[in-house]
Amino acid sequence: MPDAQPDIVFSVDKLTRRFGDLTAVEDLSFSIYRGEVFGFLGPNGAGKTTAMRMMCGLLKPHDGSIEINGQPLNGGDWKGLRCIGVCPQAITIWETMTCREQLEFMGRMYDLDWKSARRRSRELLDVFGLQDKTDRLGRTLSGGMQRRLNIALALVHDPEILFLDEPQAGLDPQSRILVREYLKTLSGKTTVVLTTHDMEEAEKISDRVCIIDGGKKLVLDTVETIKGDMGQGDLFAIEISEDLERDLIPHLPERLEESKSFYIVDRTLNLVSDQAVDILPGILQTIKDQGLHLESLRIRKKTLEDVFIRLTGRGLRE
């Protein structure tokens, strides 16, 4: 029997949004499977936030469509939005309400009865390590605690789809692990759409990732498939003091042909090869013969960040 097709819970088709002469999102299409963690990645200014706002029903697209469970999502349609939970990048809490009051109030806004709202609030306070802050006002919490409360507020109504925009910003390492482990418990039950600049974190928890830039989709697949497309083998990065394009690359045609893939970032030549032991000595000899100065040499496994930089052509933007 053929493998069962994944259950699509959310889809966007040719989504486009303009701001004057600027096209922030252009012809963006993809589907998200039920119960997966979907990494939605891109450098600053790539169109992620604009796309997320449209996907959450907060911004109306100029073209294209959005569907949840096969039903169209229209901005302002609260019925279609009830199955969505949103944790924005900017911390959004009520400073003069206690943690418990905020969670219970949010639950009531989503039509939970008081008993259910209280129970769910206690659960989330425990999950996010805020049980001893139950009666503390929001403004008295540290930044990391406020971030954890913000995530809890997005989860209080047990949403079918959870949008998290940079949820781990401002979290200490212990809190990052706590949030990561909780998201793993949602696997198969809650669909999570995650935007982050932390490529290592995205690689650890995402079932699939979509990388966009300039408002357009560059790639969408599992992390391992995307990394595999760069070629088999390890990545080695060679940095020299001189200009790579001018002083080194013209002298390496055969060596580069032997590599599976290569790209340049700043003064570093990045190559992927399963024959590093055979290729590397020749490259180092060429550097010596040309009188160039080797700054550093690193050999390591490929990461999602390598894919990101190769596709976008630069490091993460501030």
Précis, in short:
This protein has 318 residues and is of the alpha/beta class. The chain has twelve helices and 14 strands.
Write a structural description.
This protein is of the alpha/beta class and about 325 residues long. It folds into two domains: about 220 residues, Rossmann fold; about 70 residues, Alpha-Beta Plaits. It is about 35% helix and about 30% strand. The protein has twelve helices and 14 strands. Helix 3 crosses helix 4.
Q: Give a count of the beta strands, DSSP E runs of length 2 or more.
A: 14
**Number of separate structural domains:** 2
CATH class of the largest domain: Alpha Beta
Q: Kindly identify the CATH topology of the largest domain.
A: Rossmann fold
Helix residue percentage: 25-40%
Give, in order, the helices and strands.
EEEHEEHEHHHEHEHEEHEHHEEHEH
Alpha-carbon distance between the two ends: 49 Å
Largest sheet: 6 strands, mixed
Which structural class should the secondary elements be placed in? alpha/beta
- What is the residue-mean pLDDT, rounded to a whole number? 88
Low-confidence stretches: none
